[in-house]
């Protein structure tokens, strides 16, 4: 996240609550806020989903088209992922070209889908070397109350799984990679951070897992560090919550 000046009194207040083993909203350290997924919410997209994690809301749309394949993969369809932090979603979001936070979000969503081999891109080939089908995933953060990363990743994979096109029916999608984000405040690890918690975090780690027991992507941010034991703790929780979240769609 873009650095912001946090009043020391706010930082101290959140830190004291966390050090006491509590969170501002009463959750356990390893507990998500309520998650809801709405499918097929945008008629102009071949697949769409709106995800809420607590008060954070993200919309994802999937558009299908045709393109010239990349030279190094002439028999595979193309995948493009974009992300937009809508200015009305948070005071810190500004209009204009994507900033580093939007670029990071798009890359995390894209990497999880791509590395899990969620889509069989070879099945999107029309004419090798000449024409393939293209998949565009557009993500919009509509309300930001912390952890838009997990909401965007969940919305993108849900939209992909329900995307259909008249030319070939459902997309050849098989995997369900799930992203789980953790932060550190002092020596405490918190899952699914709220905005207040993110504002004072020392480090952030997003781990994306699939249903086959693979870690398909991870992303570290902020200046703090993670020990090996802490990372392993996060991995165990990511597999646990990933399994539960796949039941939502």
Q: What is the N-to-C succession of helices and strands?
A: HEEEEHEEHEEEEHEEH
* Helical proportion, percent range: 25-40%
CATH class: Alpha Beta
Shape: elongated
Write the CATH architecture name.
2-Layer Sandwich
The stretches of 5 or more residues where confidence is low (pLDDT under 50) are none
Number of domains: 1
Total DSSP E strands: 12
Secondary-structure class: alpha+beta
Cα distance, first to last residue? Answer: 29 Å
Radius of gyration: 19 Å
Q: How would you sum up the major sheet?
A: 6 strands, mixed
CATH level-3 fold name: Ribosomal Protein S5, domain 2
Mean pLDDT: 95
SS summary, helix count: 5
**Percent of residues in β-strands:** 25-35%
Under CATH, the homologous superfamily reads GHMP Kinase, N-terminal domain
